[in-house]
Each structure stands twice: as structure tokens, then as C-alpha cells.
């Protein structure tokens, strides 16, 4: 599902171009590539490098949110302005710190930016506002270590959440998107109906909900909660 600018250029292409400007040589970040079609707004990026004594942006790191997953304490770190995001797993000398893919993309992190879910594969999500929507990165625990799942997501409807939709003991990613038609202008896309697209933690599409007139009609909005019965084939699948 593509969105468009007023000239007919897909909005996802314009945002991808914007993200490309943010990439700097040697930085541990790949900008978010936006896709709103059957690939579900997913674009792979490498995980961040571990560090024991992190620095956040231009200042020291402060824990702005915390959770537990996989037996670990998980803390979202940022500087005083909510920039320079890092995620610390564990405590003390055994802690591991991963720089998020959102670092450098002008995303302001808050206490609401971290969500974690226990399960067969412990999973965390770091999210924040970006380009009139929301972007988020998934982090997973495999074996004894945490890593980026390599799936940055963009929601032009403003919601990315974790939920065990399939009831298989592992969280899925719910990405709420506008059901825009190819060539829609940004204004037209902003008035389009919405749907929730569900993906597993590796980015494989599991299905979509029906479309709704407004995001608020999705159950639990903005912390959308779905079951497998809510799913059907996604548009264009």
C-alpha cells in the first residue's frame, strides 16, 4: 500500500529520501525505509553495536523507561531532550547496550517509547513520532543475547504495538496503516480508512484486519489488541 504526495510521487518514496539524508559514515544507524504495500512497511537494518558505558547524543544517558523481558531488566536511555536512544539489557558489568536504529532520525523518545513482551522469544519495541506518524524498531532475545530483529516499521496512522495475536506464545507486531490508493496525495491519504497489519518478529506478514473509518475503531486503540480471528488477507496479498 503506497501513499503519495500532491505531485503523485508515493509518500513512502519521499520519506525514504528524507531518511537517506540522515545517514552518516560510520554511524551505527540505517535510516528507515518506508513501504506500505504487501511488504508491510518493513525495511531491514543492522543492529547496533554493544557498549557498556553509553553516551546519548550530546549528553549523558538517562533511563526514561524500563520494563522486564526474558529475565532481564530493560531500560530505554536517552539524553535530556529524548534523543540519542540506547537500550540497556541487564544490570551491572553484565549489561549490554544497543544503540537503536532511531538514533539520528530526530525521533524524540519518551516514557511511552518502550514496550516489552515475554514469551517464547522475549521481544521489545522502541518507538517514537516521525514524519506525522510513528516509527519503531523490534529487539529480540535469542539465546543469551539481545539483538535488533532488523525490522524498522513506519505507521502513518500513528500506532505500532506488540501483542500475541496468534496465541503462539510470541508477540507479533501490529502496524496500523492508512489504506491509501496508489497516487493518493498526502491530504487524500490522511483521510483514508485504516487497517492493522500483523507481522511476526522476523517481518513475515500474518494478515490484516478489515478497514475502519478511523483508528479509534480498532479495539484497544492506541494499544491495539487483536486475535487471530480478526485477521484476513491483506490488500494486494
Short description:
The chain has 237 residues and is mostly beta strands. 7% of the residues lie in helices and 31% in strands. The protein is globular and about 50 Å long.
Helical content band: under 10%
Q: Which whole number gives the mean pLDDT?
A: 81
Please, how many helices?
A: 2
Q: Give the helices and strands as they follow along the chain.
A: HEEEEEEEEEEEHEE
Regions with pLDDT < 50 over 5+ consecutive residues?
Answer: 1-52
- Let me know the largest β-sheet: 5 strands, antiparallel
Q: How many beta-strand segments?
A: 13
Look at the helices and sheets and give the structural class. Answer: mainly beta
Radius of gyration: 17 Å
What is the approximate shape? globular
Cα-to-Cα separation, first versus last residue: 10 Å
- Beta content comes to 25-35%
What does this structure look like?
By secondary structure, the protein is mainly β. It is built from two helices and 13 strands; from the N terminus they run αβββββββββββαββ. The strands form three sheets. Strands 5, 6, 7, 8 and 9 form a five-stranded antiparallel beta sheet that branches. It is globular. 47% of the residues are buried. The model is unreliable at 1-52 (pLDDT under 50).
List the helices and strands and how they pair.
Elements lengths: L10 H11 L40 E8 L2 E7 L7 E4 L6 E4 L14 E4 L5 E8 L2 E10 L2 E4 L4 E3 L3 E5 L8 E7 L7 H5 L3 E6 L5 E4 L29
Antiparallel strand pairs: 1-2, 2-3, 3-4, 5-6, 6-7, 7-8, 7-9, 10-11, 11-12, 12-13
